[in-house]
Amino acid sequence: MTAFAATIYRRLVVDDAIWVYASSSAAVLRLDGVSDSVLSAFPPKTGCTIEDGLALASASPHTADIPRGDIESTFRELVGLGLLRPVGEKLPPVATVPPMPYPLTTLVINVTNTCNLSCTYCYEYGEDKLADRERSDGSARRSAMTADTAIESIDFLFRESVGRPEITVTFFGGETLLNWAVIESAVTHARNKGRLENRKVNFSLTTNATLLTDRIIDFLTEHQFGINISIDGEEGDHDRHRKFKSGQGSYEVILPRVKALLAKNKAARGRPIGARVTLTRGTKDVRGLFRHLTEDLGFDEVGLAPVTAAKDRDYAFEPTDYHLLVDAFGSLANDYVDAAVTGKHHGFSNLSDLLRELHTGTNKAHPCGAGLGLLGVSTEGDLGLCHRFVESGEHEIGSIHSGIDNEKRTAFLEAGHISKRVDCHSCFARPICSGGCYHEAYVRTGDASAPNLHACDWIRAWADIGLKSYARIMERNPSWFDRHEVPT
Amino acid sequence: MSHITPVNRKARLIAKLVLDAPETARAMSLPDPPFGCTTIFAPGWEADSAGGTSTLCTPIERDLYDCYHSCYWPAQVPDALTNFPKWANSCGAPVKDWTSTDLVFP
Questions:
Q1: Chain A residue with Cα closest to B9
Q2: Where exactly does CATH 4.10.940.10 map onto chain B?
Q3: CATH code for the part of the protein at B34-106
Q4: pTM for the whole thing?
Q5: Helical (H) or strand (E) element with A13
Q6: Using an 8 Å Cβ cutoff, are A328 and A233 in contact?
Q7: Per-residue pLDDT tens for A370-428?
Q8: Which chain A positions have a beta carbon within 8 Å of B1's beta carbon?
């Protein structure tokens, strides 16, 4: 007789209600005592026969007055939902890459390799840098992109994104504003081209804000840039790592410029401006930091990123430190939920992103869009999987001049597909994590397609925070998620 | 579903499919079922262990006609219903001479 087993799922009790996240599909379900008894009657892997499972479920106090037919139909529904499946079921093979050439949506343009800061944790310049500043013949690479290369990059994106009505150009560095004239030329060119082809072009940029001027601020708001400011909190936290080459902290320099940008953008009703915070082991009061950035300075969004670093760096988080992050992110999530149930914006963008994925049921085959819809361009026009991989030799996949090397692109995507990351197959958080950042994996292990096993405890705890927050908002203010609904 | 509440979008989509599934199954038991090799058991195109077909109870040559005449399955052989009604005209006894069927260029 066929045995049935429970597939991988996460069961959480939130405010006395039972919530289940099914990893095979990323479905979120609320169970009652009956369905919970049926699901828990079937053990994972080895499973048991339908007869034994239903007998066990019927013996539960939750099913005392429930007709047998009801329990049986609940079993069938759990099978249909993928939470219970026949033991040894053969699954059909899955495609590891979408049909190629897959059209791009986003191009990250590295307009410069230089920076006027010397942040101690920087992967671009610090001890963990991947980029090779010399060409294979030993000559130095160009540190700033020319206007011609930027314009060719825009043309390349238009060419490689055929069929997409909306595309995004992201400027990255180094410090992007060091090459401001090139950004202006690229934006003007992209705007004109978009108008001709009747396609919408979005722009975004990351900057350390040290070089913001009124003229630049006007241009950024006029073109509705999505802007990310790298800022690590109050002066003490910020200046610990974000320093000029002289060793002087940069907080005092950026403060008036950031305030001017936020004020101008608010008046122009521009896109939300985000603070991008790099968390290190030394960051103590994350909630205070968040409040400073949103309430004191007026940022619309704050995104927190634990530092990417090899494991022996003193500012790096270790697997045993993950509780520090859980506490910090958990307390911000509680504030977020309190705001959301009363219909208010909170601005913790990590959680907004996670909640959107949980609500839609995102089930990732690859951890991010690198090499799929997104590519990075180096100052000389070479293509990398993303901005973090440009000029890193083995991860280059063609150039804007010769086109994408689709053979290398496909090989990388196949290696990074979730079906190859066997360690992830038993994890409930797989649909939202999918093994994590390629670049971080490369820095840690030397293999970009390896799963980031050092982060598993943290990712699972973060997934729990997300699921609990989702459950609480769904119970008390489900219309909060209407923005993520699409007509079916 | 009286004991499970699908909450997120994905769960609602799957639940809809699960609840609709019995309708799909019923279609096969209608008095006049759709005809074709997908609803009956046909052994498919096979060869014996030596790579030949003569020892098989349903050799490949017969299968060609199974798909051609009785089943609209254009991905496997030219379809007799609409596009290639003369495909097998030159081949009277396919078991002996199936290679004389026409080449077609869809």
A1: A360
A2: 34-106
A3: 4.10.940.10
A4: 0.82
A5: strand A9-14
A6: no
A7: 999 999 999 999 999 998 888 877 788 999 999 999 999 999 999 999 999 999 999 99
A8: 74, 77
